[in-house]
Amino acid sequence: MRRAWRNSAVLCLMMVLLGLLMASIRVATVAAPRFTVERFVSLEGTVESYDVRPDKAPRMILAPSTINDKKEGLPVYVRLIVRTKATKPIAAGDFVSLKAILTPPSGPVVPGGFDFARRAFFGSIGAEGFAASTITVHDRPEGDLVPLGHIGETRRRVMNEIVEVLPEQAGGVAVALIVGYRHLIDKQTATAIRDAGLAHLLAISGLHMGLITAAAFFVFEYMFAAVPAIALRVRPKKIAAVLAWCIALSYLMLSGMGVATVRAFIMISVALLAVLVDRRVLSLRSIALAALIILFIWPETILSVSFQMSFAATAALVAVYEWISRYDWIRPRREVGFTGRVIRYVGFMAFTSLISQVAIAPFALYHFQTLSIIGILANVIVVPIMSLIVMPIALLSVVLMAFGLHHWPLVVLGWGIEFVIDLSHYFASMPYAVFRSGAPSDGFLLVTSVLFVSLLIIRNARIVGIVSIFFLVSIAAPYGEVADVLIDNGGRVVARQDQSSGRLLIVGGRRDGFRDESWRRYWGLDPDRDVGVLHRHCDPDACRTALGQERYVTVLKSMSGLRKACDQGDVVIGSWRWRRYCRGSVLYITFEEMEASSPLALFNIKNGDIRAEFSTPDGTRPWHFTPRR
Predict the structure, then answer these.
(1) Which domain holds residue 589?
(2) Is residue 4 included in any domain, yes or no?
């Protein structure tokens, strides 16, 4: 027993060291030049992607060839929001020139929130900003190759064919299901699908990969079994397994190779290999193998919500069904009639949805501060539609697209997707469909993750029962300290929650943007409630905003405003050069700190012991490159 524990400890230590090594190699591999300050530039480059979004300005990713006539030390990619005109329609692969305002990639919008700078770093995006002039689209120079390969070209062509037949939200969802582009889905549709607990339908995940592969497998098996000359010489299911794997590989390439899709492909590959060698098809070992392969190639994905929720749901389902498969009562009985089979199917669908929802609950609460309560019922109704209608017709449409016969299959596909969208709106609008928690702490994620992994590896039924109770209690009571006030844009945007009315109170900036949405989720507020306005008074010396509890934040304009604000005991935001002259303020924050690390969070406003925390964490992370003064 001691040797087993010692071997396990050594193995765990080796895995941790291997993970650190691979993470270091990955960071060194993707490191590239990045902007550290805001700059107005002239740039030329090749369009890597150009996304026209239904309710937002188009977004363009550019591979720059020159910035201010310099050709060296450039970022690999630049991401731009395009609100200006172009000399002609822009498409991926075009060579363009324009003027733009570029800034370093932004960090989290709330303390402990999703770090956009980290995602940009691993995506080789060294700057982001806005187009500031008309975009000139040039003819491509001779010999200059399109950076996108044949797969990217194929994905774009499939997207265009789908949108031509299904131009509205049905087309946007169809594009997301088939080729993985989600920019055509508007905010209203995406929110309804997420609140209904059907967000996994928008991401090409194990469900879609499994449905496509299963449909191909059974079709091929039936075809070869129907030919005696083949069926008598070779087992049809083994030929079907090979051809179904080819279909899965093609779908993986077409989908853009997201984390959930790669995980599903690896597991399907293991399952089809098991069919070929007559072994058990699915187990926790295949999930562990998929996780190891993904983390070996992309170690940073362990921090992504896609990795966490995808593996949590799949591992939980495999573990639970491995356990209950030992009992005879779940096995189908011949004497059960049609009604009994329907009831049995609905019961298993509800049970599967329940297990998935419980497994992903801590990760959904941590990353999105929301959990769909209606998701179990919604999945029972919607998943069969996806399984029996939407995904088989999607596969048929892609196959027939090569022959130009895809119009009517896409029309039928659109009917099915529109029905799914209508159901999503219906379920999302039901009372108490969504639980909003506010932002849990990092400790909440750590505790629930450890408990979840313990449930997967422990085999003692009594201990599993005890750990399950702790896991459910941890989910039911997410804990974490949230800020009383959030401040952004050098103090120009100030917000707090009004607990009595459940509204967001804010002043400054534009409304109903991503920041407002994120701050609402951070405080667990209803996104449909109207926004209130904080009181602000401005004069030539300063702008003073009321925070409640007789506390104010003052943004300085002059030394005269400095003296007054410091005498009144306000939270003061001003120049770094002035901070030594402010003796009486509760807290002094510099413009330089705000520029580098905002938004700023203020805690303990009520008791007067005010504490400040920046959303961008301290440390030497390579994607947080702007120093504070």
Answers:
(1) 485-614
(2) no
